[in-house]
Amino acid sequence: MQPNLPPSADEQQAIGQFLALAESANVHFELIGERVVIRAVNPNWMAWSTLRRYLDEIGLPRLEAYFKQTSDAERQRLAATA
Questions:
Q1: Where residue 24 falls among pLDDT bands split at 50, 70, 90?
Q2: By three-state DSSP, how is residue 40 classified?
Q3: Which backbone phi and psi does 7 adopt, to 5 degrees?
Q4: Which residues are registered as beta bridge partners of 37?
Q5: CA 4, 5, 7: angle at the middle one, nearest 5?
Q6: Beta-carbon contacts of residue 2 (< 8 Å; ≥ 6 apart)
């Protein structure tokens, strides 16, 4: 994934699946203002290292662009395919 370009449809799908995986580990991502915020409530620490590797590959700028380009309904649809 190239960090300075908006995510393609395939990349949106991958990010949606990543976010669904994170949710299943009680790690939540959201856009507040212009920043991506990570909130973890009783997270599954066994999954954290894998989530962190995926997050490093995706990159926060790409994740921020995903949140800005997609609606809540689109994000639910993309996450549901995981």
A1: very high
A2: strand
A3: -65, 140
A4: 30
A5: 125
A6: none
User: Which bin fits 41, alpha (ψ -120 to 50), beta or left (φ > 0)?
Assistant: beta
Residue given tokens 């994170």 in the structure block:
22
Amino acid (one-letter) located at 69: Q
Whole-prediction pTM value? Answer: 0.86
Which residue has 């669904």 as its token pair? 20
* Token pair recorded at residue 66: 């995903």
pLDDT at residue 6 tops 90: no
d(C-alpha 36, C-alpha 58), whole Å: 13
pLDDT given for residue 81 in this prediction = 66
SS3 of 3-48: CCCCCCHHHHHHHHHHHHHHHHCCEEEEEECCEEEEEECCCCHHHH
Q: Is the CB of residue 38 less than 8 Å from the CB of residue 29? A: yes
